[in-house]
Design goal:
The complex is a heterodimer.
Chain A lengths: L2 H32 L6 H19 L2 H27 L4 H23 L15 E4 L2 E4 H23 L1 H11 L1 H6 L4 H23 L10 H15 L4 H29 L2 H26 L11
Antiparallel strand pairs in A: 1-2
Helix pairs in contact in A: 1-5, 1-6, 1-8, 1-9, 1-10, 2-3, 2-4, 2-8, 2-9, 3-8, 5-6, 9-10, 9-11, 10-11
Chain B lengths: L1 H27 L4 H25 L8 H20 L10 H23 L4 H20 L10 E2 L5 E2 L2 E2 L3 H23 L2 H11 L1 H6 L4 H27 L1 E2 L6 H14 L6 H19 L4 H14 L3 H11 L1
Antiparallel strand pairs in B: 1-4, 2-3
Helix pairs in contact in B: 1-2, 1-13, 2-6, 2-9, 2-10, 2-11, 3-4, 3-5, 3-9, 4-9, 7-9, 10-11, 10-13
The chains are: A mainly alpha, B mainly alpha.
């Protein structure tokens, strides 16, 4: 196998993994701390892309678009948390799922009404259009940027969760949220803060992917399920689990799509392999989930419950 | 309680009479458009009733039920595809018995395997795993170029069940409506059998059921397979109705809509899915004529029903009677 191709695909896999991590970090925290299952996380991803792309197009600055995405999503998330999500914390998971499914329909239609049915494409700033040569392999510098941002966020979250007072409260909430409330912590504000932070990270993922794909209606609705798979595999409520699982899934998905047909061709006729490989590689991450869950039903790094 | 169950039987009877008479009468009066709406309604009600067996009876909120609709539909579409285009002689056929058996077999197998894994988990894990498994089918179908990938597949000829003609709307509606009655009867009987009582008891208190020496796992797995089979059958009917199938039938939002129908009608009553799918079709029909942005009021209604409408329509009827 070609070593250059292998490294290129590894970088692609890492990029997908980092993106999945940005999406699933918020999901796993809202899950772990508030016991909330939030499909509308997909809408924050989409809104981040649309807010960012709009500002980037009007001002011509991708950097301004990036920050506009974060601020815009923060505002929307805060309003939705106060208005609707806070009603849902005490409801059962099915209610939460259906209500946030309703929110997705509303968000998708509002975006359709405001921006029209077509997507928004933006160009990369000249600084990021180039390529970087790393030991004989040339890689697009923008992909390196995505991976860098993702790793920074991962480090930041690790620091926040494990070495700050807020992080202590977050971990306490994931272990036993009722006890936390009884100790006099304002659980409502903590929930709102964590919810908005998770939404903002989804918004960051949305604006980061926009120059590569584009901002389009319902862009988050498929990747959100993959993010759920990440959360399940990693263990609900665990940032470390989400990070490890996101990277594993990003790698497996990318390598499966790139190389599975060649592996299949070694053991079956070429025609069968060409039909089977794409289908099987699309199913790989779900097979992985099935295997991991049959060995460890609570995921790789389940938080300790007390 | 006695009075309220009489009300719901009354409402249910009205629904069934309307479904039996109105579309047929309209069809013979020359309004052939309506029978399509009613056929879709009845097929969705069959799928919804199978989900009721899981959600209402066993308390298992499967969020990937659309996968079975897709599997059933492709079990009709793929044999027709080969029979028309040539290839795969062992599979190719226009014969309805073969296609429907295939739909049932494939759904049962998929439910058995995924159920055995998903039923080890509880609560939120269960919801997300069922969802993920249906997305697995979605992505597999999207990447199968042979069967049209995301462009879908035309079903050139409906299933052959001589002497019935499934391209005759009245025959097709008759089959669908008869199937709905049969499914309602079977699920009703299941619910009140020993099997159903174990499921309901395990829904309320699993520990007690275990303590009385019954392992709910195999009961749940059997219920899961039955629900999958019924939904797969509904999918096979759906392929005959729309004569076009695509991975879109399996996307998770379809499962969400199915779940919405049940919650809308009432998840604690066997006629909830029928009432819910009727309202769903009505909403879709009225709103989609009103505006292309019809998903907006649709989403708002969904949100309001979940936030304020506990127990769905049937639940409200019951509460009125009780107060």
């Amino acid at each position: 196998m070609d070593i250059v191709l292998l490294i290129t695909q590894a970088v692609n896999g890492l990029q997908l993994g980092v993106l999945l991590f940005l999406l699933s970090a918020g999901l796993t925290l809202t899950f772990g701390i508030m016991d909330l299952i939030n499909l509308a996380h997909a809408s924050f991803y989409m809104l981040g892309a649309f807010f960012g792309a709009t500002v980037a197009i009007y001002t011509g600055s991708f950097t301004l678009g990036f920050f506009a995405a974060i601020i815009g999503v923060l505002i929307v998330a805060w309003v939705i948390e106060k208005g609707i999500i806070s009603q849902l914390y005490t409801r059962d998971h099915l209610d939460q799922l259906l209500a946030t499914f309703g929110l997705i329909l509303i968000a998708d239609t509002l975006v359709h009404m405001i921006w029209g049915p077509a997507g928004l494409a933006i160009a990369l700033p000249p600084l990021l259009q180039g390529q970087v040569a790393l030991g004989g392999v040339t890689l697009p510098s923008y992909r390196i940027l995505i991976i860098g941002v993702g790793l920074l966020v991962a480090l930041g979250l690790y620091w926040l969760v494990n070495h700050t007072r807020t992080g202590m409260l977050i971990r306490a909430g994931a272990s036993n949220r009722r006890m936390l409330g009884n100790l006099g912590v304002d659980v409502g504000s903590l929930f709102a803060a964590v919810f908005c932070m998770g939404a903002a990270l989804a918004g960051v993922a949305g604006i980061l992917i926009t120059p590569i794909t584009e901002a389009s209606i319902g862009m988050g609705n498929d990747i959100i399920i993959t993010a759920f798979v990440v959360v399940i595999i990693g263990g609900i409520g665990s940032i470390k689990g989400a990070f490890v699982a996101a990277i594993i899934i990003g790698m497996i998905d990318t390598f499966g799509r790139a190389f599975l047909d060649q592996i299949f061709m070694m053991i079956m006729p070429a025609e069968t392999a060409e039909t089977a490989a794409p289908a099987v590689s699309a199913m790989l991450i779900y097979l992985l989930m099935a295997i991991i869950l049959s060995l460890r039903p609570a995921g790789l790094f389940p938080p300790k419950l007390r | 309680m006695e009075a309220s169950s009489k009300t719901s039987i009354f409402v249910g009877a009205i629904f069934l009479v309307v479904l039996a008479v109105v579309p047929v009468a309209l069809f013979y009066a020359g309004e052939i458009f309506w029978i399509d709406i009613f056929t879709r309604l009845v097929i969705l009600a069959i799928a919804g009733t199978s989900l009721y067996l899981l959600l209402g009876v066993a308390g298992l909120p499967s969020f990937g039920h659309a996968a079975y609709l897709g599997l059933g539909a492709y079990a009709v579409g793929i044999p027709v595809h080969y029979a028309t285009m040539g290839g795969a002689e062992w599979l190719a056929s226009y014969n309805g018995w073969w296609q429907f058996s295939l739909a049932i077999l494939v759904s049962a197998l998929f439910a058995l395997v995924t159920g055995a894994i998903s039923l080890r988990t509880r609560g939120v894990h269960f919801i997300m795993i069922t969802m993920a498994f249906s997305q697995m089918i979605y992505y597999a179908l999207i990447s199968l170029e042979e069967y049209g990938a995301d462009d879908g597949l035309s079903v050139y000829s409906p299933s052959e069940f001589p002497p019935l003609l499934l391209d005759n709307p009245i025959h097709l509606y008759g089959i669908c409506f008869g199937s709905l009655l049969l499914v309602l009867y079977v699920v009703h009987r299941l619910q009140h059998s020993r099997f159903g009582r174990v499921l309901q008891a395990a829904k309320q208190n699993e520990t007690r059921v275990l303590a009385s020496g019954v392992n709910p796992f195999k009961y749940r797995l059997l219920a899961y397979v039955m629900a999958g089979v019924i939904a797969g059958y509904a999918g096979a009917l759906m392929a005959n109705f729309s004569l076009f199938i695509s991975p879109d039938m399996v996307e998770w939002s379809r499962s969400g809509e199915l779940m919405f129908m049940i919650i809308l009608g009432g998840s604690q009553h066997i006629l909830g899915p029928l009432v819910g799918s009727s309202l769903f079709i009505l909403l879709e029909f009225v709103l989609s004529r009103w505006s292309i942005y019809w998903h907006l009021p649709f989403g708002i209604i969904l949100l309001l029903v979940v936030l304020f409408g506990r127990g769905g329509i049937i639940g409200m009827l019951r509460r009125d009677k009780q107060s």
